[in-house]
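Person: Show me a sequence?

Helper:
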Amino acid sequence: MKLSTLKPINITAAALFALAAPAAAQTLTVGLSLPETIEGFDFVNGMYRTFEEQVEANTDINVELVYGGALGAPNDRLAQMRRGLLEMTDAADGNYASIYPDVMVLNMPYLFPDEETAWAVLDGPFGQSMADAILNETGIRVLGWWESGGFKHFSANRSIEGPDDMKGLKLRVLGPLATIPVEAMGASASPVAFGELYTALRTGVVDGQDNSVAIFNLINLAEVQSHLSMTGHVYAFGPLGISDDFFSGLPEADQQAIRDAADAAIAYNREASRAAEAEAIAAAEENGVTVQRLTGEQRDAFKVVMQPAALDWLRENLDTPELIEQAFGAVEGAR
């Protein structure tokens, strides 16, 4: 064939640019509740910054952290994740209970004797089985389980050393799994909104509350509560969730990088949470709060009253009540 008969190949400048240009980087948006800078809560925001650093160092994904509840309330952000409108959020255990009620088995009073046992259960077969169920039911993939300040404790303006000391108190607690054990001790429960808690305590609408020590300090409860009893009755946690629509659409290498980033983030969270609680206890004492450190026998006295009442409710209200005995077995195996 003569060269003169060859037709020129028509490649436009736009086509050449398209061939040469790399694919646009994906964005992974994380909706967070807290402001970007807040003292004593690095165990949450720092966890997600660790995740961001790890993902961006090992993939072409851009991680965008959106602070201060700008993307809606926690339950709203969970709904956005389920619809594929948001990739991640810091919603915790109570929020997940609204879309997967069986997670409440982990809120059983005195299920976990300490943080290390909780971590072992959540990181083990029981935690993985629950993560699988959450994925199947909600479309949210749980990459791991983070600590939301550790155990909850009761506070009031009087000493609380045993269940009898709760009699007659009006306590701010939320949900039946918190209300029923409190009422079993002779207290009355009131569902005061979190944003109204300080004022409710100051004005006597309620006498006490339960939260982690970090939350106690966050809203300056030392100004309206004289005693903090380290009852450690419920472990507060959060599933580190990601939209499976987003995750499943990634190449395997990026999926593994996200799993590895989640592991690093949770390791950071747990260490930071333990340090934050110690600092929060010291700060409460410096602000004049009497911190009551209970013995094992004293905590057992609370357990004897609180746990049976909670178990009765769980057996009637969990979608999978057999999870109760499985949870006890997982705890026993982790001891």
